[in-house]
Write a structure and sequence with these properties.
This protein has 159 residues and is an all-alpha fold. The protein is 79% helix and 0% strand. The chain is globular.
Length: 159
């Protein structure tokens, strides 16, 4: 039974990754049809808010004001991330944005190694990270590597 549960979590993770990957393309298409990054952010926010109502129609707010302020801060910072990503998609290629965003686990590993001195980089960690990066590059660029560097768009994506 435990192994069966693990398969369900893997399927959910694959679905989330697939949907998340499609957001780059759909955002780029919406920008092409004339929507601004701010309008796309607002629409995504409203869809997420309505989705929360389906998941939890009765209990939506925090138990106290301190928790409510933490949620507000999280929403503002999270919204800023999506807004910069949408703006970056307006400026640069969707493949650049997707590739830079997919390097986040590798950058997190590097920062972890720099900050936490007790963490050691094993050969498996380095090899797995590089293999994952090459795999992401192969999927994102799909054999058509177009080098169009947009410093502002790429920097916004990195943020």
């Amino acid at each position: 039974m435990n192994a069966k549960k693990n398969y369900i979590y893997h399927i959910i993770a694959i679905l989330v990754v697939g949907i998340w990957g499609l957001t780059f393309i759909s955002t780029k298409v919406l920008i092409g049809y004339g929507l601004s990054p701010q309008e796309i952010f607002l629409l995504r926010f409203l869809m997420a808010y309505l989705g929360i109502w389906f998941i939890s129609p009765r209990k939506l707010f925090a138990d106290n004001w301190k928790d409510e302020l933490w949620l507000l801060l999280g929403g503002i910072t999270g919204g800023s991330v999506f807004l910069t990503e949408n703006t970056a998609l307006e400026i640069t290629l969707a493949t650049n944005v997707a590739f830079i965003v997919c390097t986040a686990p590798l950058l997190t590993t590097i920062l972890s190694l720099l900050i936490y001195k007790r963490e050691k980089a094993t050969a498996a960690l380095i090899g797995g990270s590089l293999l994952a990066l090459v795999g992401v590059a192969l999927v994102v660029y799909n054999g058509h590597f177009v080098l169009k560097i947009s410093p502002l768009g790429d920097f916004l994506t990195l943020l």
